[in-house]
Write a structure and sequence with these properties.
Layout (H helix, E strand, L loop, with lengths): L1 H6 L4 E4 L10 H15 L3 E4 L10 H4 L1 H4 L16
Parallel strand pairs: 1-2
């Protein structure tokens, strides 16, 4: 992420391992989100790569919003890294 950021100043959409998404816990998603956010800075959209596996269940898909519990507004209060 930091290499991409050093070469690209526009918004980066990434942060979650889309290959392992189905196996990630909310805590692991949160760790990946925080790491990517720190490296990417303020122009960052959290997403699991281009897609999640097509056979992802509703329960698996719900892990992303669960990753910012118990404070669902935490996602919106990330301080940009300049």
């Amino acid at each position: 992420m930091s290499t991409v950021r050093s070469k690209f100043s526009q918004t980066i959409a990434t942060g979650i391992d889309e290959v392992r998404y189905k196996d990630l816990s909310p805590a692991q998603i949160r760790e990946q989100w925080q790491s990517a956010s720190s490296a990417a800075g303020s122009k960052f959209i959290l997403t699991p790569g281009c897609s999640v596996p097509n056979d992802s269940t509703d329960e698996e898909l719900s892990r992303l919003p669960q990753s910012w519990e118990p404070d669902p507004m935490a996602f919106f209060r990330i301080q940009p890294v300049l």
